[in-house]
Specification:
With 249 residues, this protein is an alpha+beta fold. It has 2 domains: 5-81, Beta Barrel (OB fold (Dihydrolipoamide Acetyltransferase, E2P)), CATH 2.40.50.140; 87-248, Up-down Bundle (de novo design (two linked rop proteins)). Helices cover 34% and strands 22% of the residues. The chain is built from 6 helices and 8 strands. The protein has a 5-stranded mixed β-barrel. Strands 7-6-8 form a 3-stranded antiparallel beta sheet, with no helix packed on it. Helix 1 packs antiparallel against helix 6 (240-248), helix 3 runs parallel beside helix 5 (216-233) and helix 4 packs across helix 5. The longest helix is centred in the C-terminal third of the chain and has 18 residues, at 216-233. The radius of gyration is 20 Å and the shape is elongated. It starts with a strand and ends with a helix.
Length: 249
């Protein structure tokens, strides 16, 4: 007799794939189980109760049970579908990027409640026009790096650990700022204004981002830093980055 464990958890659908004639595979980033893959029986049928529940970006309460190899979705209730994000090219691209980041940066079954809540909050804010989209994405990238073991050291020199008030250099090897005495190698120069903004952005809660107003040059400097760390520390480079670059040109 196979022992089936049933779990209830909040989750965001980060990816889907057709499976057989009427079924779907869905990847959920969950509050209690981390990233999981579940099969959804009959999800492709037009009258399926799972049709709306398994759309990309959907945030809801899900009941899953774990079989021998995969989870199976049993029940669900939508909290917010976020389908409005799909009607705007910028919002669609940014939200797809967020889901792809979770997919490539988080190991299966690795629970991180704070990162889950940051993802949900970022999707809610992206669904409004209250906050600069780029700052929202940079903030999420920094929190993702922190929560997956690649936190940037910005209050101390990342080599000698001496406390620093600011810096004009980010070491890509030591993950942080460099003081005036330590060698500035294998990194990127950055304006002190952008460095201070990066530190402020890193420590600021996502829902407080409206307090930050940066010019385009500073945003580009910060993007260069986060993009490097994102592209060089995970299993693969996010494909959505190319689309983000395209729509900004």
């Amino acid at each position: 007799m196979i022992n089936l464990s049933i779990f209830e958890t909040k989750a965001v659908i980060i990816k889907t794939q057709d499976f057989k004639e009427n079924d779907k595979l869905v990847w959920l980033y969950t509050e209690k189980l981390g990233k999981i893959t579940a099969i959804v029986r009959g999800a492709k049928k037009s009258k399926s109760k799972f049709l709306a529940l398994t759309l990309p970006l959907c945030y809801g309460e899900y009941m899953v049970y774990k079989g021998k190899n995969l989870y199976t979705l049993q029940e669900g209730k939508i909290i917010h579908s976020f389908q409005g994000l799909l009607n705007d090219l910028y919002k669609l691209t940014y939200s797809s990027y967020l889901c792809e980041l979770i997919d490539i940066a988080c190991a299966d079954n690795e629970v991180n409640v704070e990162l889950f809540r940051n993802l949900v909050t970022t999707l809610y804010l992206l669904n409004t026009d209250a906050i600069d989209y780029e700052l929202l994405i940079r903030s999420f990238e920094l929190k993702l790096l922190r929560d997956t073991g690649y936190n940037l050291t910005l209050d101390n020199c990342s080599i000698c650990r001496k406390k620093i008030s600011s810096s004009n250099y980010i070491s890509l090897s030591y993950y942080g700022g460099i003081c005036d005495e330590c060698p500035k190698e294998h990194g990127l120069f950055i304006s002190k204004g952008a460095y201070n903004a990066l530190r402020f952005l890193k420590n600021l809660n996502v829902d407080k981002l409206y307090r930050l107003n940066l010019n385009n040059e500073m945003k580009e400097e910060i993007e260069k830093i986060t993009t490097f760390f994102i592209c060089n520390n995970y299993a693969r480079k996010p494909k959505s980055l190319d689309m983000l670059k395209f729509i900004k040109e």
